[in-house]
């Protein structure tokens, strides 16, 4: 270890040479790493805050889905949570089996709209945070 210096913990450091230039270079590199770490931590905080904001917006949003003929309407939140189902008298008169199909059709329509809105909002969030286009494309359908 010949050129190293003794550190405060009693160990020898082969990286820190006996001249001050070596030490300054080492300190500069470590300082830059600390700055990078702090920048990444701040970016993570911004992403978390913005993601929570988008999730709240989606939870408050409602998306209506309809079956053919609009005999049944299903409403979902932007987080794909069921909000309500409206069934017309005409749909009720078609019988349980047909009504089940109409409800399923309306639910699928609402779900597709809700998921599409979520993907668009998340993609917009990614772009607003400066993520590379390739990463935010994963949110689009």
Automatic annotation (TrEMBL):
GO cellular component assignments: chloroplast
Keyword Chloroplast among record annotations: yes
InterPro entries in the record: YbaB-like_sf (IPR036894), YbaB/EbfC (IPR004401)
Domain of life of the organism encoding this protein: Eukaryota
Residue ranges of coiled coil: none
Localization (cell): Plastid, Chloroplast
Keywords: Chloroplast, DNA-binding, Plastid, Transit peptide
Keyword Calcium: no
GO molecular function terms attached to this record: DNA binding
Family: Belongs to the YbaB/EbfC family.
Protein's name in the database: Nucleoid-associated protein YbaB/EbfC family
């Amino acid at each position: 270890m010949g050129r190293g210096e003794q550190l405060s913990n009693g160990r020898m450091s082969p990286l820190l040479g006996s001249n001050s230039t070596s030490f300054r270079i080492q300190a500069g590199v470590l300082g830059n790493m600390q700055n990078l770490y702090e920048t990444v931590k701040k970016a993570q905080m911004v992403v978390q805050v913005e993601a929570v904001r988008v999730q709240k917006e989606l939870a408050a949003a409602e998306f209506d889905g309809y079956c053919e003929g609009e005999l049944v309407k299903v409403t979902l939140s932007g987080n794909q949570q069921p909000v309500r189902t409206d069934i017309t008298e005409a749909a009720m008169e078609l019988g349980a089996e047909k009504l089940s199909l109409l409800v399923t059709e309306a639910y699928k329509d609402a779900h597709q709209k809700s998921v599409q809105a979520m993907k668009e909002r998340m993609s917009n969030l990614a772009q607003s945070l400066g993520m590379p286009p390739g990463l935010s494309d994963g949110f689009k359908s």
